[in-house]
Design a protein that fits this description.
The protein has a six-stranded antiparallel beta sheet with strand order 1-2-3-4-6-5, covered by helices on one side. The chain has a three-stranded antiparallel beta sheet with strand order 7-9-10. The longest helix has 33 residues, at 407-439. It is 65% helix and 7% strand. A hairpin with an 8-residue loop joins β3 (96-103) and β4 (112-117). The radius of gyration is 31 Å and the shape is globular. By secondary structure, it is α+β, with helices and mostly antiparallel strands. Among the domains are: 4-66; 80-164, Phosphorylase Kinase, domain 1 (2-Layer Sandwich), CATH 3.30.200; 169-377, Transferase(Phosphotransferase) domain 1 (Transferase(Phosphotransferase), domain 1). The protein starts with a helix and ends with a helix.
Length: 830
């Protein structure tokens, strides 16, 4: 019978042996444990079980290989795969070999990893499968995923993938060497989970997630994870089952139980299991034991629980783990048992139907744990929930505890705390129940690539239910009304968006007070709605009225006041005449957010974006470009290069380069972004018309026959797509039509330009009234078009109207003023 120390040694030797090829494991076991017969016998037995499981998983691949007649020699240094050249072997595995290489023609200077998928020729079916897989892998562009640069086949039929070469340490090794504490480990795992979720959204499951396939490097003191080895990845959709996809295995201990069953389909929940197993190791210090190899083992096995593993550790191992995780020994098991046990257990449920349904929901529970909220995986227990309340509010609760010296005051404080905890729990349960019911009301198969018809059906149902089902929870209702408003706004339905905003404001004012956080959020969103529809004075009045109240709750919500201030600065800027006031508001809000929530917060990046625009318009273009470059890099690192906000930043940065006499850089960036968005999101993405019109404007300004012709085609496609997406009355549609009319005028097509401008003017007046700032430029262009057509009376009329509306301090003020005065001078009576 092995004692505790021997069981610990057995576990370590087993995992060390699993890193070796199967043929070398027996000798290793006898060398390490030959003087302890009982330990050796148990180790050999465990290794045999593990080998049998691996054999069951990889048998289909061997059978496939046995049908391929030709075995090719291992490539030597200098061997070429397309433009890539092999330098040296990095490692071998069951799915192929990986080589260090470089671009032979010098077009790419960094080293790359070249992975050969097997070493034999492939039939037509396997070739088609590889082509599908390489296209799927190329979709992924995320800072936590090692980028795929190229893929192909050589003259011998060998398939290869060319990937970003990552220099770093495996996840657990890096965490241990850098003495990462518990919370820092979870934050790092969250960034990894974001990368995995990105892959799932692109239709790819990794299927071999483990610490060795997650390499950590350090950039400016910040750990940067890179997920590697998607070579055995598979599609997440049903097509994979019918596409002849070869089975692929994982690594015992990290792979899901269903991966050990021959012929069983594998979906994204397999990666959820692997992330749960990685979390188990990060918090317990021990690798998880291998999964069972049969269906019966899968049904009877148990999920992982870190606290169970802690119970088997020796006193020395406990001391080392508590030092690593930076937790006192007496708190270690309690911290794990409170919530992390539940998170790991749910992620590693043998029955995948009981796991988290997605990596996003797994990550959400990690975020909840880090923020001190009850996790979804845990059973709802009142005392346990109250304890989470205490953790989140250590200082107030500590103050209340001091007041217990006075019994009466202590009772009041305790009662108040209990009441607030109960209210928080009730509110949270109401929100969770409501959202869960709404989201699950749509079949996931039907909702894939959801169109607006089905989306509106779900939203309309939610709009009706929210009035009754959240009637007793005004804060939850108010916040969800704002969410629904934003969704309707994104769908182009401004009227429904306004209805929900007004409802959110009224509910919050009535039940929570006009100075409450939900009421102020609703007022800010109403101001944004007014501003986007051209009612700038109304927007400014709302923001100025509620800024003081937002400042008073800065401890409760440190973001709201500077966010309002940034929005106010933008509204002031659009009205013209107060450029310096607008610039100061925008700069102050950005600096405040930097100080309060840091450079990576989404509101900080928004405010910085506005501030950079104000800098560019005040003639400080170099500062604007430097700031926007920094913001774009931060956003790309935190949320990925294809995140909508990142694309917006890149779009603005390219525009800055265009205006800063660097149109060639702008053109290249716009074309790159168009290619990325088209490939990843399809032709229906609402970012594409914006990119098309900005590329058109850049080519338009550069001039030349070929560029002008392409610009005209891009203007046409952008306007048509924008009208289809958001309607003819949308502000962006009118702006694009105005830009196209200016191109028509510069291209010598004065009559079509005038007709288009008249239509844009009528639409703008109808949608926004006479005070919208865009009307000034439309009138100025109409004056130019009438002059080109020889209609001097019409030209003078429009020029005088434009001058009468011109506001000092706007970016276009001086240019339009000069043009209109020239027109008046030209058309003056002799």
């Amino acid at each position: 019978m092995l004692n505790t120390r021997e069981w610990s040694l057995l576990n370590e030797l087993f995992h060390q042996a699993c890193e070796l090829p199967i043929a070398e494991r027996d000798a290793f076991a006898r060398e390490q444990a030959g003087d302890q017969p009982e330990l050796l016998e148990e180790l050999l037995r465990m290794l045999q079980v593990e080998a049998d499981a691996t054999d069951a998983v990889r048998a289909p691949l061997r059978d496939l290989g046995s049908r391929i007649p030709e075995e090719l020699p291992e490539p030597e240094p200098g061997t070429r795969f397309g433009p890539w050249q092999v330098d040296r072997l990095l490692g071998k595995g069951g799915m192929g070999q990986v080589y260090l290489g470089h671009r032979a023609d010098g077009a790419y200077t960094r080293q790359v990893a070249i992975k050969l998928i097997g070493s034999k020729s492939h039939d037509a079916r396997q070739q088609a499968h590889f082509e599908r897989e390489r296209q799927l892998l190329a979709r992924m562009q995320h800072p936590a995923i090692a980028q795929i640069h190229d893929a192909g086949s050589d003259e011998h039929g060998r398939h290869y993938l060319v990937m970003e070469y990552v220099e770093g340490l495996p996840l657990t090794q890096w965490c241990n060497q850098h003495h990462l504490g518990l919370r820092a480990r979870l934050r790092l795992l969250l960034r990894i989970a974001e990368g995995v979720q990105h892959a799932h959204q692109k239709g790819v499951v990794h299927r071999d997630l483990k610490p060795g396939n997650i390499l950590i490097s350090q950039v400016d003191g910040v750990p940067i994870p890179r997920i590697i080895d998607f070579g055995i990845a598979a599609r997440t959709d049903a097509d994979a089952a019918s596409a002849g996809t070869p089975d692929a295995g994982g690594t015992p201990g990290y792979m899901s139980p269903e991966q050990t069953i021959a012929g069983m389909d594998v979906d994204s929940r397999s990666d959820v299991y692997s992330l749960g197993a990685i979390l188990f190791e990060l918090v317990s210090g021990k690798r998880p034991r291998g999964s069972g190899s049969t269906g019966e083992a899968t049904r009877t096995s148990e999920p992982l629980r870190p606290s169970d593993q802690i119970a088997t550790l020796s006193a020395e191992e406990i001391a080392q783990l508590t030092q690593t995780l930076k937790l006192p020994p007496q708190r270690l098991r309690r911290v794990l048992r409170d919530d992390l046990d539940w998170i790991v257990a749910r992620a590693t449920q043998p029955d995948r139907e009981q796991r988290y349904p997605s990596v996003a929901s797994f990550a959400d529970d990690l975020n909840r744990w880090l923020d001190g909220w009850p996790v979804q995986a845990a059973p709802q227990r009142r005392l346990w929930t109250l304890r989470k309340f205490v953790v989140r509010h250590r200082l107030p609760v500590a103050a209340a505890a001091l007041l217990l010296l006075s019994v009466f005051a202590g009772l009041i404080a305790t009662t108040w705390a209990l009441h607030r905890a109960e209210q928080a729990v009730l509110r949270e349960q109401a929100i969770n129940h409501f959202l869960n019911d709404v989201l699950t009301s749509v079949d996931p198969v039907v909702a894939f690539d959801l169109d607006q018809t089905l989306m509106r059906r779900v939203l309309d149902r939610a709009s009706e239910r929210i009035k009754t089902e959240l009637a007793a929870h005004p804060e939850a209702r108010s916040r969800l009304e704002i969410t629904l408003s934003n969704i309707y706004s994104n769908l182009g339905d401004a009227e429904r968006a306004l209805v929900h905003l007004e409802s959110a404001r009224d509910v919050a004012n009535t039940h929570l007070g006009a100075a409450s956080e939900p009421a102020l959020l609703a007022q800010m969103e109403l101001a944004h709605h007014h501003g986007s529809r051209g009612r700038l004075a109304d927007a400014e009045q709302l923001l100025r009225t509620h800024l003081p109240a937002a400042h008073r709750i800065r401890q409760q919500n440190p973001v709201l006041h500077p966010q309002m201030e940034s929005q106010l600065g933008w509204v002031v800027r659009q009205q013209g005449g107060r450029a310096e006031e607008a610039r100061q508001l925008l700069e102050n809000s950005y600096r405040t957010l930097l100080e309060r929530v840091g450079p990576e917060h989404i509101r900080t990046i928004d405010a910085g974006h506005f501030h950079s625009t104000a800098l560019s318009e005040s003639g400080r273009m170099e500062e604007a470009i430097a700031l926007l470059t920094q913001l774009t890099a931060t956003q790309s690192r935190v949320r990925g290069e294809d995140h909508p906000q990142t694309l917006a930043l890149r779009n603005s940065l390219a525009g800055f380069h265009s205006l800063n006499d660097d149109p060639h850089s702008a053109e290249a960036e716009f074309r790159t972004m168009i290619d990325v968005v088209s490939r990843q999101h399809g032709s229906g993405n609402r970012m594409l018309p914006v990119l098309h019109v900005n590329l058109a404007y850049t080519l338009h300004r550069m001039g030349g026959s070929a560029r002008m012709q392409e610009a005209g085609q891009l203007y046409d496609s952008a306007v048509q797509a924008q009208q289809a997406l958001q309607g003819a009355d949308h502000p962006l549609t009118s702006q694009m039509r105005e830009m196209r009319a200016q191109w028509l005028l510069d291209d010598g097509q004065a009559e079509p330009a005038r007709d288009e401008l008249q239509a844009v003017l009528a639409a703008t007046l109808h949608a926004f009234g006479e005070n919208h700032p865009a009307i000034t430029n439309i009138l100025a262009l109409l004056a130019r078009s009438e002059l080109a057509l020889g209609n001097t009376g019409g030209a003078r009329e429009h020029a005088q109207a434009a001058l009468a509306r011109l506001m000092e301090g706007t970016p276009e003020h001086d240019r339009i003023q000069r043009e209109m005065q020239d027109i008046l001078s030209t058309t003056a009576a002799p």
